[in-house]
Write a structure and sequence with these properties.
By secondary structure, the chain is α+β, with helices and mostly antiparallel strands. The protein is built from three helices and eight strands, in the order H-E-E-E-E-H-E-E-E-E-H.
């Protein structure tokens, strides 16, 4: 299996994800503990220069859109559904059916759920040029950011890596474009 980025953290995530697939038949269900799969999406503007994040109500931090698979094994479909539901944006376009990033992060104890891990498979979705957003009940706020806007913010390390990968891709693209 090809490495997505050459990042050692992702190689470890990929190995752990493959092991979960091999050992836990219910790994796409939210009641599979101590770990289960989730799907998420980095929503970017049509020109790729802005990122839409939401301030997650329960976790009280800025994140990409995403959620539980709830039995769905097509994680790209999960990421698309969650991004549309949480952003209110219709017509999101999948940048690539191949995952853009892999991340494993711990979720703290909440109500009757024990602490557990989300094995998050991440994609990039492109918003239409003219777009209207709608804040869902899961969010305190939605906001478009440039990379410069987020400089110095205390973001989740996995989100910081995801944003860095997208920024590197956009920067590389702008340096190689005929108009640059």
């Amino acid at each position: 299996m090809l490495d997505l980025s050459g990042c050692p953290d992702e190689a470890s995530c990929r190995q752990r994800m493959l092991a979960l697939l091999d050992t836990c038949p219910s790994c796409f269900h939210r009641d599979a503990f101590p770990a289960h799969f989730t799907g998420s999406a980095l929503v970017v503007s049509a020109d790729g220069n802005r990122i839409l994040l939401h301030h997650h109500r329960k976790l009280d931090r800025w994140l990409q859109f995403g959620g539980h698979c709830d039995g769905e094994e097509d994680v790209l479909s999960v990421a698309c559904r969650e991004a549309q539901e949480e952003s209110g944006i219709n017509g999101l376009v999948v940048a690539s059916a191949r995952p853009f990033d892999l991340d494993i992060h711990e979720i703290p104890v909440h109500r009757r759920e024990p602490a557990h891990f989300h094995y998050d498979v991440r994609y990039v979705l492109i918003a239409p040029e003219t777009v209207t957003t709608r804040t869902s009940a899961e969010s305190k706020e939605l906001r478009w950011f440039t990379f410069a806007d987020l400089h110095g913010w205390n973001l989740d390390p996995g989100l910081r890596r995801l944003l860095g990968k997208w920024n590197a891709l956009v920067t590389r693209r702008s340096h190689h474009s005929p108009t640059a």
